[in-house]
């Protein structure tokens, strides 16, 4: 959405450019004073900045206008930090200022969206790309408008209707829908009184085999009359006379030509509901077609990209098949010169690749379609304990997939509550539910292993923890750098803020793997399955499965040394995380250099002034200033020009329900993983570090990619870093705390492969983050290293306990 600027005098333009520094009380103007301004189209132009993308600036041609209506917008200005950078907004706009301070202006619609954007830059808050408020359809792009268009609207046909998607419609849906109509057609003719419906079935059979470029219309009694309609021509006004009066009537007015328009006769309604044939149709033909159209509707809806087919079938089932047969007419659009009837159905394309952006009540279509799978998985998983209907492998796969939409709902619930609440509430919600997805799986796995008296599940948890750490510091930033770098060539980010995350990563890895290094120092190397050649001392022993065993050297070593060390680390790591929060959100918030403007009044901008009030919120310097908009109270769900998708009460309810469902899916996945491990040749390490670790993080990966595509690589990197830091500094201490109260045998001692893979990854990512810029090559390096580590896990043998 573009920012519309008013046309100002040169003095006002210069004043407007300096409005960011004008925060004195004299410059404030009542926002209610500008609502009388007429709406005018304002010209603007885009300025491309090499680091931050396109930013809207007023064009010089706009100076011819005196007024411009300011629609409510909010501004979020991002200054890339650097040493000595002032926290105030730069005093001028243009390429020079961008190069000096790397300023980026993000336009948001309202205060709730401004809070969501601000929360994205707060350390420890979950990053969320999607809107939490409803965006007016008129403010969206033409591509998005097309997704929500009504199939009853006749639009100018562009291009040929013979496309790949339309041909796929015929192969997937058209032929068997048309076949059913052809089969019902003779049945209705045999009833004699239903012959009219037999003709309808024949017409619809021809329509559904290729519905594109055709329309289904509702015919009615039409009274034809002529009206005057002028063709497109130039109207030449008369010149003013000697008295100075000017006649506004044009000199040239073309003669009217007749255009036939429908005028339905008043007082006449269809009486087909009083006919016997209608009830014969409802008994013999309609139920079968409802089943067929419902099946096509569900299948095309689940395929996402064929949602137009679902809309077409739903409209046919609910409207067309319930009309009088003589009222249903099928026409080719190019031959319909005169509008003689109401258009019921008109479809041009069966396939649209952009339907992955389609949403209902703010919920994306993909997690919405996966929601039924969650309930099916839970119902079958807990009712079919003996695997009569589904195998254990199938239950495991469906349970893992079900975690994806639940993780999405949890993320949207957190973002909705945080955007509508103050900083304290948002921090509590993020701390409580931010790691709930992973913690639910880890705790259920440890309980499953404790009940089964096996250490295999403990190894699964450790491998999943390591896999999350590796994926978030290698794969997530790597794939974001690749996708963002292909589109934007080179992207820059705040190296100081990235340095904070890097330092916390070093602390995290050092603390988490300290007990492992301790056990290797004071433990004994124990090898099993050792063989040699009897009688030949020159041949050395061949040993397999060697590991460090602390209990062999000292039976009380774990109890007296390692366990206190683990408890000490579980206290130090959250303390370091808390210090990081204080550092980034309070004492050194300027290193992020985020400035949010949410201003009042178009007149402020017109006069070159702004109403600003600096409020430090976390590590963000917030000045809420909305142009010609009313500040939206957090206690109101709908105010002014926006509606929140989820209220705080609804979002909290979704979080609780999603958490319960997540616990059920995690329980089913851990319960049904054992047959896979027993009958699969794939290493347990590989399954844990890939499927179990990264599937719950898919919504976060998508958010990171979307940020990178918008040239906001800083947030993309923060997505992975925050998750990795939370794994080490929050999730692992919580697991230790849980084990202290309910002993499930969890010991914070990792395998060698986890130790060295994590240390190497942290060193590599810190090297990449040093210069504050990235491209697709650096992203490729991170992804390749991640794939190498995956290959290492793939060929590694499974743990002894499994």
UniProtKB/TrEMBL annotation:
The chain crosses the membrane at residues 169-197, 279-307, 363-382, 394-411, 423-443, 463-486, 498-518, 565-585, 651-670, 715-738, 744-769, 776-796. Residues 164-214 form the Inner membrane component domain. GO terms for cellular component: endomembrane system; vacuolar membrane. It is found in: Endomembrane system. It comes from the Eukaryota. GO terms for biological process: intracellular calcium ion homeostasis. GO terms for molecular function: calcium:proton antiporter activity. It is a multi-pass membrane protein. This is Cation/H+ exchanger protein 1. The lineage of its organism: Eukaryota, Metazoa, Chordata, Craniata, Vertebrata.
């Amino acid at each position: 959405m573009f920012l519309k600027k008013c046309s100002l005098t040169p003095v006002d333009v210069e004043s407007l450019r300096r409005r960011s520094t004008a925060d004195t009380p004299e410059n404030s103007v009542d926002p209610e004073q500008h609502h009388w301004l007429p709406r005018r189209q304002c010209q603007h132009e885009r300025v491309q900045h090499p680091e931050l993308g396109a930013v809207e600036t007023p064009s010089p041609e706009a100076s011819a206008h005196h007024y411009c209506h300011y629609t409510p917008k909010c501004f979020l200005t991002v200054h890339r930090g650097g040493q000595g950078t002032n926290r105030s907004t730069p005093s001028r706009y243009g390429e020079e200022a961008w190069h000096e301070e790397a300023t980026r202006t993000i336009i948001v619609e309202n205060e709730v969206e401004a809070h969501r954007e601000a929360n994205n830059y707060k350390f420890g808050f979950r990053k969320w790309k999607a809107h939490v408020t409803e965006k007016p359809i008129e403010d969206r792009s033409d591509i998005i408008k097309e997704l929500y268009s009504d199939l009853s609207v006749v639009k100018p046909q562009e291009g040929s209707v013979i496309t790949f998607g339309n041909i796929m419609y015929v192969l997937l849906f058209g032929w068997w829908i048309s076949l059913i109509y052809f089969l019902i057609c003779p049945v209705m003719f045999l009833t004699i009184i239903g012959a009219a419906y037999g003709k309808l079935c024949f017409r619809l059979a021809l329509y559904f085999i290729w519905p594109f470029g055709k329309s289904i219309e509702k015919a009615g009694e039409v009274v034809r009359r002529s009206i005057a309609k002028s063709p497109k021509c130039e109207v030449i006004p008369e010149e003013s006379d000697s008295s100075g009066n000017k006649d506004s009537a044009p000199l040239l007015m073309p003669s009217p030509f007749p255009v036939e328009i429908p005028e339905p006769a008043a007082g006449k309604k269809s009486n087909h509901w009083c006919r016997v044939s209608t009830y014969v149709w409802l008994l013999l033909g309609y139920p079968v077609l409802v089943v067929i159209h419902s099946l096509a509707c569900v299948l095309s809806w689940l395929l996402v990209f064929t949602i137009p087919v679902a809309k077409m079938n739903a409209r046919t089932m609910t409207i067309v098949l319930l009309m009088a047969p003589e009222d249903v007419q099928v026409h080719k659009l190019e031959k319909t010169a005169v509008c003689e009837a109401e258009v019921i159905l008109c479809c041009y394309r069966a396939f649209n690749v952009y339907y992955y952006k389609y949403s209902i009540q703010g919920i994306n279509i993909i997690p919405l379609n996966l929601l039924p799978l969650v309930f099916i998985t839970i119902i079958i998983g807990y009712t079919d304990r003996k695997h009569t209907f589904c195998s254990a492998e199938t239950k495991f796969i469906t349970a893992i997939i079900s975690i994806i939409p639940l993780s999405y709902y949890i993320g949207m619930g957190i973002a909705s509550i945080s955007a509508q609440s103050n900083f304290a509430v948002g921090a509590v919600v993020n701390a409580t539910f931010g790691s709930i997805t992973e913690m639910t799986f880890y705790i259920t796995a440890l309980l499953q292993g404790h009940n089964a008296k096996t250490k295999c599940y403990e190894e699964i948890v450790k491998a999943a923890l390591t896999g999350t750490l590796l994926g978030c510091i290698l794969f997530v930033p790597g794939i974001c750098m690749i996708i963002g770098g292909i589109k934007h060539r080179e992207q820059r980010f705040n190296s100081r803020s990235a340095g904070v995350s890097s330092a916390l990563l070093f602390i995290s890895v050092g603390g988490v793997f300290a007990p492992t290094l301790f056990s290797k120092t004071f433990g004994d190397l124990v090898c099993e399955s050792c063989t040699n050649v009897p009688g030949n001392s020159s041949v050395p022993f061949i040993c397999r499965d060697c590991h460090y065993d602390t209990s062999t050297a000292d039976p009380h070593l774990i109890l007296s040394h390692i366990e206190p060390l683990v408890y000490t680390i579980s206290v130090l790591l959250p303390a370091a995380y808390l210090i990081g929060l204080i550092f980034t959100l309070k004492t050194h918030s300027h290193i992020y250099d985020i400035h949010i403007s949410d201003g009042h009044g178009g007149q402020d901008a017109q006069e070159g002034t702004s109403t600003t009030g600096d409020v430090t919120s976390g590590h963000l310097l917030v000045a809420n200033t909305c142009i010609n908009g009313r500040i939206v109270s957090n206690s109101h769900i709908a105010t002014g020009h926006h509606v929140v998708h989820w209220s705080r009460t609804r979002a909290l309810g979704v979080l609780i329900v999603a958490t319960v469902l997540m616990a059920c899916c995690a329980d089913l996945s851990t319960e049904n993983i054992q047959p896979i491990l027993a009958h699969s040749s794939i290493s347990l390490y590989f399954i844990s570090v890939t499927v179990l670790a990264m599937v719950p993080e898919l919504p976060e990966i998508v958010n990171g990619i979307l940020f990178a595509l918008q040239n906001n690589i800083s947030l993309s990197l923060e997505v992975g870093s925050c998750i990795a830091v939370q794994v080490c500094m929050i999730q692992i201490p919580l697991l230790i705390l849980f084990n202290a109260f309910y002993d499930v045998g969890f010991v914070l001692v990792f395998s060698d492969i986890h130790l060295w893979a994590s240390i190497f990854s942290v060193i590599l990512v810190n090297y990449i983050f040093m210069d504050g810029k990235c491209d697709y090559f650096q992203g490729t390096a991170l992804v390749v290293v991640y794939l190498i580590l995956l290959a290492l896990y793939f060929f590694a043998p499974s743990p002894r306990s499994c």
